[in-house]
Design goal:
The structure is a single chain. With 503 residues, the protein is α+β, with helices and mostly antiparallel strands. 25% of the residues lie in helices and 8% in strands. The chain has 16 helices and 13 strands. A hairpin with a 4-residue loop joins β2 and β3. α2 packs across α11, α9 packs across α11 and α12 packs across α16. The longest helix is centred in the first third of the chain and has 14 residues.
Length: 503
């Protein structure tokens, strides 16, 4: 007769999980035998299936080898991503210590950032002008909204409803890769119809059929064909928190950091010091998935034209000139020669939309991490031990800024070197931008990651364990680091995940 394991009294220790969402997904169990174990007690299936790495999924295991010996209770650790951190958003406000004029500019620009565009600004509630002829969104805030204004994709994808907005019921079909609970996406074609490299954004929708675009006859791209041919890749919005602080990190700092880490990076198979460079002034570009944009203003101007179809002083030409579908003089967004704004900030009132967008981004504060715990502290150490910080450099520092002490000599907890790294065939998008080839991406900043819903350039993942696994494929510079992660104990793996969710 085999003896049964002892029955143990278990009590939920909610104090160990300060965030309500974490408490709902993972519970720390205090056993009467003084043994402690972390288990998943949620009955509801999480959005992404839990990935168990290096651990048996059980609370009890039989120990001892002698026949008839009473088994002992052995704690087993389930390695699981608990999901987005709960509580108030850790981002979305302005940097500290702004002057009154700068603070007013930020507040006014924040409102402009939420402006909704229609074709000519004639639709009620959609007073911005210049939408289309092709577009992915009708407002900056549509894409950059979660967990706060300036963030990334929200839980409910607004691109679904956008397809038929303003009577465009018969004209636009929601593509298969746009789903109600999936990420906001743009689509890029790898090759054009002649077989040459394309790489450009092919917008989801057209203004045909809208109440404010009479006579326009314009079809959507053939996305189904592109999917069948394997000729399409996707990008999701990058969070904008701390953009102005990143602008203010000097190139010399980035270059010297890479040089100091060269030996450590080489030991892990990482190539050092590869940056995307502006073809105009030779300085490091650092915004976008491939670090293809130089500044907040360039980022704003390109997005306004490419994602919403609004021509502006940086990108003054329509991307689609189909006859009958162009309704406005260009550029549709320009400097205002008279102050007809709300009056909070004359600088904002006179400035174009893209200057306002850039001002809002530039003055956004960096995200605030959750308070450290023993687990997240250990997770940060393990994150460093296995080599993640060779690319996800924890800190950068700004130089003096015209916007005052809140942006001058500030330490940024950004977790990025802003360099380009080869992520292998598993993550390649086969799109080149500037110096970045089809397998290279900018090291994604990790600040604010704890409250983010979708990950990687195309939003394919919502589970951090899957994200880590995706970093390993043929040619990836992260292969050895992922191997190091897989070699950790389940406790240390879990602590890394909890650390990342604390950012």
């Amino acid at each position: 007769m085999v003896a049964r394991a002892p029955v143990m009294d278990a009590r939920v220790d909610d104090d160990l999980w300060p965030h309500s969402l974490w408490r709902g997904r993972m519970r720390r169990i205090r056993l009467s035998t003084a043994t402690r174990a972390t288990i998943n007690t949620t009955k509801k299936k999480p959005r992404a299936a839990a990935v168990v790495v290096g651990a048996t999924v059980s609370l009890l295991a039989l120990s001892g080898t002698a026949f008839g010996q009473a088994p002992q209770a052995v704690a087993q650790v389930v390695v699981v991503d608990p999901g987005p951190r709960g509580g108030a958003p850790g981002a979305g406000g302005s940097v500290t210590a702004l002057s009154t004029l700068d603070q007013n500019f930020f507040t006014a620009a924040q409102l402009r950032f939420q402006e909704v565009d229609s074709v000519s600004g004639t639709v009620s509630g959609e007073t911005g002008s210049g939408l289309g002829p092709v577009f992915n969104g009708n407002s900056c805030a549509m894409c950059h909204i979660f967990p706060a204004l300036g963030g990334s994709s929200p839980p409910l994808n607004p691109q679904v409803a956008l397809a038929t907005l303003d009577s465009a019921v018969a004209s636009n079909t929601v593509p298969s890769f746009i789903t109600s609970n999936g990420p906001i996406r743009e689509a890029r074609f790898i090759l054009n119809s002649s077989g040459a490299p394309d790489g450009g954004v092919h917008d989801l929708y057209t203004i045909a059929g809208r109440m404010d675009a009479p006579g326009c006859n314009l079809s959507q791209p053939n996305f189904n064909q592109a999917i069948d041919q394997g000729n399409i890749i996707f990008r999701i919005p990058t969070p904008l928190f701390g953009v102005g602080l990143v602008e203010n990190v000097p190139d010399a700092n980035l270059i010297s950091q890479e040089a100091s880490l060269q030996t450590l990076q080489a030991a892990l198979g990482i190539t050092s010091g590869v940056f995307n460079i502006s073809g105009n002034d030779g300085t490091i570009t650092r915004f976008g998935w491939k670090a293809q944009n130089k500044s907040a203003l360039m980022f704003a101007g390109e997005a306004y034209n490419v994602e919403q179809g609004v021509t502006n002083e940086l990108f003054p030409d329509e991307r689609n000139t189909t006859s009958g579908c162009v309704f406005n003089a260009t550029p549709e967004d320009s400097t205002n020669m008279t102050d007809s704004g709300p009056g909070l900030s004359p600088a904002s009132d006179f400035s174009s939309d893209i200057v306002n967008f850039a001002a809002f981004m530039r003055l956004l504060a960096q995200p605030t991490a959750a308070a450290s715990t023993s687990q997240t502290t250990n997770g940060a150490q393990q994150f460093d031990n296995i080599g993640c910080t060779r690319c996800h450099i924890p800190r950068q520092r700004t130089v003096n800024s015209v916007f005052g002490p809140g942006m001058s000599q500030q330490e940024l907890h950004v977790y990025s070197d802003f360099a380009l790294h080869n992520m292998g065939v598993g993550l390649q998008d086969q799109i080149s931008q500037g110096a970045a080839n089809g397998q290279q991406f900018r090291t994604a900043p990790l600040w604010g990651l704890g409250q983010r819903l979708f990950f990687l350039h195309d939003g394919r993942e919502s589970n951090l364990l899957s994200v880590i696994a995706d970093h390993q494929s043929s040619g990836s510079e992260a292969n050895q680091t992922v191997t190091n992660f897989n070699g950790l104990s389940p406790t240390n793996q879990l602590d890394i995940i909890l650390f990342l969710r604390s950012l």
